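Researcher: Final request for today, and then I'll write up notes for the group meeting. The sequence and the SMILES for copper (II) ion follow.
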Amino acid sequence: MDSSGKAGLLLAVTVAFWAGPALSAGMIFTVGDNAGWTIANGPNYTQWASGKTFHVGDTLLFKYNKNFHNVLLVKEPDFNACKNSSAIKEYNTGDDSITITSTGHHYYICGFPGHCQFGQKVDVLAVGSSAAPSSSPTGSSPPSPNAGDRLVGGSLVFLGGLIMAASCVLLGF
Ligand SMILES: *[C@@H]1O[C@H](CO)[C@@H](O)[C@H](O)[C@H]1NC(C)=O
Ligand SMILES: *[C@@H]1O[C@H](CO)[C@@H](O)[C@H](O)[C@H]1NC(C)=O
Ligand SMILES: [Cu+2]
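Model: Predicted protein-copper (II) ion complex:
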Protein backbone atom coordinates (compact mmCIF):
# COMPACT_ATOMS: atom_id res chain seq x y z
CA MET A 1 0.00 0.00 0.00
CA ASP A 2 1.46 3.41 -0.88
CA SER A 3 1.48 6.20 1.64
CA SER A 4 -1.60 7.95 0.26
CA GLY A 5 -3.46 4.66 0.59
CA LYS A 6 -2.32 4.38 4.19
CA ALA A 7 -3.34 7.95 4.89
CA GLY A 8 -6.75 7.27 3.38
CA LEU A 9 -7.22 4.18 5.50
CA LEU A 10 -6.17 6.02 8.62
CA LEU A 11 -8.60 8.79 7.80
CA ALA A 12 -11.40 6.25 7.29
CA VAL A 13 -10.64 4.55 10.61
CA THR A 14 -10.55 7.89 12.37
CA VAL A 15 -13.79 9.15 10.84
CA ALA A 16 -15.57 5.85 11.57
CA PHE A 17 -14.43 5.99 15.16
CA TRP A 18 -15.41 9.58 15.86
CA ALA A 19 -18.67 9.45 13.91
CA GLY A 20 -19.78 6.16 15.47
CA PRO A 21 -20.68 7.40 18.95
CA ALA A 22 -22.38 10.48 17.51
CA LEU A 23 -24.60 8.37 15.27
CA SER A 24 -25.46 5.98 18.07
CA ALA A 25 -26.54 8.80 20.40
CA GLY A 26 -30.19 7.87 19.78
CA MET A 27 -31.30 4.28 20.20
CA ILE A 28 -33.71 2.66 17.76
CA PHE A 29 -36.47 0.55 19.28
CA THR A 30 -38.53 -1.73 17.06
CA VAL A 31 -41.87 -1.79 18.82
CA GLY A 32 -42.68 -5.41 19.66
CA ASP A 33 -39.21 -6.46 18.52
CA ASN A 34 -39.48 -9.31 15.96
CA ALA A 35 -43.26 -9.53 16.27
CA GLY A 36 -43.62 -5.90 15.23
CA TRP A 37 -46.87 -3.93 15.63
CA THR A 38 -49.62 -6.52 15.43
CA ILE A 39 -52.29 -8.49 17.23
CA ALA A 40 -51.10 -11.83 15.89
CA ASN A 41 -49.93 -13.92 18.85
CA GLY A 42 -50.92 -10.98 21.03
CA PRO A 43 -47.61 -9.31 21.91
CA ASN A 44 -47.77 -7.64 25.30
CA TYR A 45 -46.57 -4.11 24.58
CA THR A 46 -46.73 -3.16 28.24
CA GLN A 47 -44.24 -5.88 28.90
CA TRP A 48 -42.21 -4.86 25.84
CA ALA A 49 -41.90 -1.27 27.12
CA SER A 50 -41.24 -2.18 30.73
CA GLY A 51 -37.59 -2.43 31.59
CA LYS A 52 -36.60 -0.23 28.65
CA THR A 53 -35.43 3.32 29.12
CA PHE A 54 -36.56 5.64 26.36
CA HIS A 55 -34.76 8.93 25.87
CA VAL A 56 -35.50 12.05 23.88
CA GLY A 57 -33.67 11.49 20.59
CA ASP A 58 -34.46 7.78 20.46
CA THR A 59 -36.49 6.40 17.59
CA LEU A 60 -39.51 4.12 17.68
CA LEU A 61 -39.90 1.89 14.67
CA PHE A 62 -43.44 0.61 14.06
CA LYS A 63 -43.42 -2.24 11.52
CA TYR A 64 -46.76 -3.67 10.39
CA ASN A 65 -48.99 -4.54 7.46
CA LYS A 66 -50.64 -1.22 6.65
CA ASN A 67 -53.76 -2.98 5.36
CA PHE A 68 -54.50 -4.22 8.86
CA HIS A 69 -52.97 -1.71 11.25
CA ASN A 70 -52.00 1.90 11.77
CA VAL A 71 -50.38 3.92 14.52
CA LEU A 72 -52.23 6.70 16.31
CA LEU A 73 -50.58 9.06 18.75
CA VAL A 74 -53.34 9.79 21.26
CA LYS A 75 -53.97 11.51 24.57
CA GLU A 76 -54.05 9.47 27.76
CA PRO A 77 -57.88 9.20 28.08
CA ASP A 78 -58.10 7.98 24.48
CA PHE A 79 -55.33 5.50 25.20
CA ASN A 80 -57.23 4.17 28.20
CA ALA A 81 -60.55 4.11 26.34
CA CYS A 82 -59.09 2.89 23.03
CA LYS A 83 -60.76 5.82 21.26
CA ASN A 84 -59.49 6.31 17.72
CA SER A 85 -61.39 9.41 16.63
CA SER A 86 -59.31 12.20 18.12
CA ALA A 87 -55.74 11.20 17.44
CA ILE A 88 -53.07 13.84 17.70
CA LYS A 89 -51.23 12.22 14.82
CA GLU A 90 -51.77 9.27 12.51
CA TYR A 91 -49.08 7.13 10.90
CA ASN A 92 -49.93 4.53 8.28
CA THR A 93 -46.97 3.67 6.10
CA GLY A 94 -46.42 0.25 7.66
CA ASP A 95 -42.86 1.25 8.49
CA ASP A 96 -43.08 4.32 10.65
CA SER A 97 -39.99 5.80 12.18
CA ILE A 98 -40.93 8.15 15.01
CA THR A 99 -38.27 10.13 16.83
CA ILE A 100 -39.06 10.96 20.43
CA THR A 101 -38.81 14.74 20.79
CA SER A 102 -40.15 15.33 24.30
CA THR A 103 -40.08 13.77 27.74
CA GLY A 104 -43.13 12.21 29.32
CA HIS A 105 -45.69 9.70 28.12
CA HIS A 106 -46.25 9.04 24.44
CA TYR A 107 -49.40 6.99 23.93
CA TYR A 108 -49.81 4.97 20.75
CA ILE A 109 -52.70 2.76 19.75
CA CYS A 110 -53.79 0.93 16.62
CA GLY A 111 -56.96 2.54 15.27
CA PHE A 112 -58.36 -0.53 13.55
CA PRO A 113 -61.56 -1.83 15.20
CA GLY A 114 -60.86 -3.96 18.26
CA HIS A 115 -57.09 -3.95 17.97
CA CYS A 116 -56.37 -1.54 20.81
CA GLN A 117 -58.84 -3.37 23.05
CA PHE A 118 -56.97 -6.54 22.16
CA GLY A 119 -53.77 -4.98 23.46
CA GLN A 120 -52.28 -3.22 20.45
CA LYS A 121 -51.34 -0.15 22.44
CA VAL A 122 -48.12 1.07 23.96
CA ASP A 123 -47.23 3.74 26.49
CA VAL A 124 -43.70 4.98 25.88
CA LEU A 125 -42.41 7.00 28.80
CA ALA A 126 -39.43 9.07 27.74
CA VAL A 127 -36.86 10.69 30.00
CA GLY A 128 -34.28 13.32 29.07
CA SER A 129 -31.73 13.08 26.33
CA SER A 130 -29.04 10.46 26.79
CA ALA A 131 -26.45 12.82 25.32
CA ALA A 132 -24.31 14.97 27.59
CA PRO A 133 -26.23 18.05 28.75
CA SER A 134 -25.74 21.15 26.61
CA SER A 135 -24.88 23.27 29.64
CA SER A 136 -21.19 23.92 30.21
CA PRO A 137 -19.51 20.81 31.60
CA THR A 138 -17.13 23.04 33.54
CA GLY A 139 -20.01 24.66 35.43
CA SER A 140 -20.24 24.35 39.20
CA SER A 141 -23.47 22.33 39.19
CA PRO A 142 -23.31 19.09 41.17
CA PRO A 143 -22.88 15.82 39.28
CA SER A 144 -26.06 14.99 37.39
CA PRO A 145 -27.47 11.51 36.70
CA ASN A 146 -25.78 11.91 33.33
CA ALA A 147 -22.33 11.89 34.92
CA GLY A 148 -22.08 8.18 34.12
CA ASP A 149 -22.72 8.83 30.46
CA ARG A 150 -20.01 11.44 30.35
CA LEU A 151 -17.62 9.07 32.07
CA VAL A 152 -18.35 6.50 29.37
CA GLY A 153 -17.78 9.20 26.76
CA GLY A 154 -14.41 9.97 28.32
CA SER A 155 -13.25 6.38 28.15
CA LEU A 156 -14.45 6.18 24.54
CA VAL A 157 -12.25 9.15 23.71
CA PHE A 158 -9.37 7.40 25.47
CA LEU A 159 -10.11 4.21 23.53
CA GLY A 160 -10.17 6.29 20.35
CA GLY A 161 -6.67 7.54 21.10
CA LEU A 162 -5.47 3.98 21.59
CA ILE A 163 -7.07 2.81 18.33
CA MET A 164 -5.53 5.70 16.40
CA ALA A 165 -2.12 5.02 17.93
CA ALA A 166 -2.42 1.33 17.05
CA SER A 167 -3.50 2.20 13.50
CA CYS A 168 -0.43 4.41 13.07
CA VAL A 169 1.86 1.58 14.23
CA LEU A 170 0.14 -1.01 12.03
CA LEU A 171 0.17 1.24 9.00
CA GLY A 172 3.80 2.15 9.53
CA PHE A 173 3.44 5.84 10.23
C1 LIG B 1 -48.79 -7.60 30.06
O1 LIG B 1 -47.64 -7.40 30.86
C2 LIG B 1 -47.88 -6.59 32.01
C3 LIG B 1 -46.54 -6.29 32.65
O2 LIG B 1 -45.66 -7.40 32.61
C4 LIG B 1 -48.85 -7.32 32.91
O3 LIG B 1 -49.09 -6.55 34.07
C5 LIG B 1 -50.15 -7.56 32.15
O4 LIG B 1 -51.02 -8.32 32.95
C6 LIG B 1 -49.89 -8.27 30.84
N1 LIG B 1 -51.12 -8.28 30.08
C7 LIG B 1 -51.63 -9.40 29.56
C8 LIG B 1 -52.87 -9.23 28.77
O5 LIG B 1 -51.08 -10.48 29.69
C1 LIG C 1 -61.58 4.20 13.79
O1 LIG C 1 -62.43 3.06 13.84
C2 LIG C 1 -63.40 3.02 12.80
C3 LIG C 1 -64.28 1.82 13.01
O2 LIG C 1 -64.66 1.69 14.34
C4 LIG C 1 -62.72 2.95 11.46
O3 LIG C 1 -63.67 2.99 10.42
C5 LIG C 1 -61.77 4.15 11.31
O4 LIG C 1 -61.05 4.01 10.11
C6 LIG C 1 -60.81 4.19 12.48
N1 LIG C 1 -60.01 5.41 12.36
C7 LIG C 1 -58.66 5.40 12.42
C8 LIG C 1 -58.00 6.72 12.30
O5 LIG C 1 -58.00 4.39 12.53
CU1 LIG D 1 -53.97 -3.11 14.40
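Model: The chain has a mean pLDDT of 75. Residues 144-173 form one domain.
Researcher: Thanks, that's everything.
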